[in-house]
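Sample entry (140 residues):
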Amino acid sequence: MKNFFALLFALVLLSGNALAEPSSTLLPSAPAPVAATKPVLGDWNLAGSVVATRVLDWTSTEECIRRPWCHEAELPNALVHNKVGFAAFEGAMSVASILPQYELTKHGHRKLAWLGQAVDVGVMAYTVNVNYRRDTTPVK
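Predicted structure, serialized as tokens:
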């Protein structure tokens, strides 16, 4: 019973403190909202590098599938052998990569957007490198 009255007394004290002036509350004030930032040159460079690596992926895959020893390992053959469909896929993937970068930058997460784009460009550059190597060396 003592514990109940002690808890009730503590609640009354805290509720009185909550109704007092806002400067005397126990909780910290909310942080100021982050102002939206405009994209800078680095953001456009990253977006351009995404598009460039996607174009290089398209050209390297098109060159690779012309050789009898080379085949696409990740994407469906029906997609890769349709030039227009494959180009549309690469364009859609570019947009699907650049749009989150734009939204993250707009909401103040520029470093996270750059990290995501750097990973995307790195993976695509590796894929392009593998495609161009595979283009010139037949499998025995």
